[in-house]
Amino acid sequence: MMAGEASMSMSGIQGIIGGGSFSFVALAFFLFVWSVGMIAMMFPAILPITLFYSKIVTRIDPRPARLRLMGTPLLLLGYLCAYAALGLGSYLLVYAAVSAAMEVPELSALSVFAPSMVMLAAALFQISPLKTKMLSQCISPITFFAVNSHKGLAGSFRMGTIHGAYCVGCCWAYMLIMLIVGAMSIPVMAILAGVIALEKVLVRGSVWFTRVIALALFISGLALLVYPSALMLI
Fold this sequence. Notes:
By secondary structure, the protein is an all-alpha fold.
């Protein structure tokens, strides 16, 4: 039973990276799918800061119309680059893990525990001080731009990458769940997009919501640890 579950888990992980051998084509395709997924998932969370930038921040520029027209896309591009970097790191991490499992077959048996370990790690991160610090920078456009204001088009891109880095620091665990547990499935993306939108836009980092999500992740991690085959239901 364990061998079969490990085989299913390894098959799903290998599918993410396009097989067991490294390929720049597979990497490019992964980053494309990853970026599209990030745009869909993070749109509700990035919308408030984008609107604040376009309506308020651009006014201090000598040419506000130009900054709204060109600066806003550059802000979003910088944000997307931060998540593309996370995607690249995730791909290389998964590729290294798959390669190690292929070299040492005994390690493939442990792959069945990877999804549950990811869920449990995400639960612990959810209640960590680092999560709180990063989230505080994501939920308040006024606070972010007051500390990270940069002029011009280059400044727009820079602010986008900085805010994207804060969001990566806040949401990397969700992205790892999407990758390792959900194998980038659309239902998992939709659920995580809803959680992120609630966390950043509606409840705005409320302690009770953070703890509820942490508890849900912890229970799910334990469930997958006891019943790894439940992953096939996702």
